Amino acid sequence: MTGIDILNGGFVRLDDHMADDLSVVNSARVSFGKKTDHLTDADRGLINFLMREHHGTPFEHNSFRFHVKVPIFVAREWFRHRAGWSYNEYSGRYSEMPEHYYIPDFGNVRTQVGKPGSYTFEPIPIAEAMDVSETIDMINGHAFRTYNYLLAKGVAKELARTILPVGAYTEFYATCNARSLMHFVALRNDTNAQYEIRVAAEAVENIFGTIMPVTHAAFIENGRVAP
Amino acid sequence: MTGIDILNGGFVRLDDHMADDLSVVNSARVSFGKKTDHLTDADRGLINFLMREHHGTPFEHNSFRFHVKVPIFVAREWFRHRAGWSYNEYSGRYSEMPEHYYIPDFGNVRTQVGKPGSYTFEPIPIAEAMDVSETIDMINGHAFRTYNYLLAKGVAKELARTILPVGAYTEFYATCNARSLMHFVALRNDTNAQYEIRVAAEAVENIFGTIMPVTHAAFIENGRVAP
Amino acid sequence: MTGIDILNGGFVRLDDHMADDLSVVNSARVSFGKKTDHLTDADRGLINFLMREHHGTPFEHNSFRFHVKVPIFVAREWFRHRAGWSYNEYSGRYSEMPEHYYIPDFGNVRTQVGKPGSYTFEPIPIAEAMDVSETIDMINGHAFRTYNYLLAKGVAKELARTILPVGAYTEFYATCNARSLMHFVALRNDTNAQYEIRVAAEAVENIFGTIMPVTHAAFIENGRVAP
Amino acid sequence: MTGIDILNGGFVRLDDHMADDLSVVNSARVSFGKKTDHLTDADRGLINFLMREHHGTPFEHNSFRFHVKVPIFVAREWFRHRAGWSYNEYSGRYSEMPEHYYIPDFGNVRTQVGKPGSYTFEPIPIAEAMDVSETIDMINGHAFRTYNYLLAKGVAKELARTILPVGAYTEFYATCNARSLMHFVALRNDTNAQYEIRVAAEAVENIFGTIMPVTHAAFIENGRVAP
User: Fold this and answer.
1) Residue among B30, B62, B171 minimizing CB distance to A172
2) Hey, are the CB atoms on C54 and A187 less than 8 Å from each other?
3) Known active-site residue B188
4) Which residues of D touch A85 (CB under 8 A)?
5) Which residues are bridge partners to B147 per DSSP?
6) D117 and chain A in contact, CB less than 8 A
7) Whether pLDDT at C117 is above 70
8) ipTM for this prediction
9) What is the dihedral of CA D212, D218, D219, D224, to 10 degrees?
10) C151 is in which domain, residue-wise?
């Protein structure tokens, strides 16, 4: 499977997986000492039952390894997911940070309306949005030029990087199972999530839905609440 | 891969996996923004370095799903491993427990010598050992017959099972990654571990060594300490 | 706080804690850079909001250490809770198991009605129930006598214990936070849970409700779904 | 306990704790069905034995809640510790980021010598170091002024913050137990760790040593390897 491009130069790519709907059924059926090799209608019902009743463990016996490139502020939110997630990230201590930072498309330059707990977002008029995008581009470009200046002076990478913006892109491997994936997607592919992590979570969910379609359908049918 | 038979009717069977030595290298190398598709000598050195320096996360981007049948007292010790392990077990609440319990071979009937912290075990003379095995067989058989008597009287399975011995066999799926697998193996395939879990851990380690031979060799070379 | 007696000789005892409702509020408010030293009506609203919106992390900055004595089959279900739980248990490898096993009160001898997924339980007529309790007492007593016989012959404790029933009592320390506690209580103090773990979970919930009453009220108000 | 000031305006402050050396001993002794109320020489030996033999669970029945203020790049490394750690962080989505960023003292402006895996760091000559500090101050100040400009134009906080440097300060609550604390300290209060997280980890270790002195001494005696 090729990757899904997001956020102007970022991506979510499935690197490998060991996952299908059948693994849920067989893990659950070990309770009854049974195993099956193809999915029946009764199995579909079982998956839906497990989801609805919050029986989460049968959804853990599978694995998705993603290779992801997103801005640091997106990675920061992603890495808050601890249970059932493993991470390895590009290191600004060991390697030079390439000049790549997030500039929102005009349509995604937004203002915040309402109060904490019930914020909504509205686009900013196009002329203003253009100025905002340019300002973001300019200040981030300035930060990277200063970073390169510090490196040229011999400053250690680990120290020079401290001036880089959280909008700079980072890369990582993230490995999870269907249960931890659904917890991530329930929170992050949601109207309350920041747009930039939402598109990443949407890509994760699309890949998940392709590989475990029955489980994904049950997730949606039960209100997108992870089991 | 077929299963490994252990403990007179138990087994450890690899049900599926997403694992190879290359996944360790690529997960680690994302720190440097590099990826490779075959293992070089430098990669072998890297795996050894990661193991020695306790850089554990690159060993988490893989997955092993085992189907296991062992006595309950072995499962009890196994399930104490929480981090990086997922379990689904046969349920004595929902299903009848088949009459199957652990009887040690004569050679494994043992006595305990020494003090806490430094116990050793010695075989019991053969005549005694035969009596012990027969006694174990008899009392466990008695427990199962009583269990069946209670079921026949209509007692709920969840209540009737409370008289079954911890030597009764159970079945479960256990999914882990190489890091959590090595933690398990370091503690349980060890002279301080009880013989019965040790043979199970040895089977797990043999399967692991076949699938990730370079990682396994580095684990041994670094004193069998999990990273 | 003294312990709560359950299951004829078992108990749930709070050994120590670092927990109050205020810790939830202050952990959440760090998002806004604020701290408070007493609970206001707005704080109560915040706790309810966090529970409803499944913002779970503010409920993790506290700790409950329990000392528990229950039958092994109850401990087995309890120990399936991995995230946010720590355990240390009495060891039948190192120490002799005292003769103490679970005998259900007559009123709790039950039969199972219905199908998997929708079982209900009904009491068994009293005369039958007496016979069942006596049978359970007899076979378990027999197991313990045989256990003592094996120990007297010099059989290692770790091997002799394999014949003891899962109804034998064990002891452990269990440490958790309010979030992991609520996950336990949501599943185990529930009509679908086995009666014997339900009374243990009820004791845990009673202690929790005394120490974090506002959080507990919000848990109930939001349908007993852990955040 | 008051906080420990670090990194020019950051701090590590113990907010609350439920921890002492006795909790380790009593958790371990439940294996033998014993409990004690003061620490004996035998208990000190037991703690050392548990540390040496990697018996980690007795070190989990306690809790430390820290309130921490450090630059984002330090928080990023800290939050990689998942097992046994809970976090709540100041949110740049909900609240304005105050103008506060990390400027290294002249003595900590450093260059990197050697190769990956064996880097060492050396101070940069004072005149150069002054220029570096000033450059860092200038570019970060510029980023914060631009941030305020964007906010003034009505840009959403969550978007405006993307230009802020990873050297900007953040605040969080972090709750852990002695075992997870030792894993953090073993990796982060170490010569291989970046200076800025090292001083934070040193503060954590000092607080830990005050509260659990016998456990801390055993940690040091056994080569600073977490159990």
Assistant:
1) B30
2) yes
3) yes
4) 82
5) none
6) no
7) no
8) 0.94
9) 150
10) 106-163
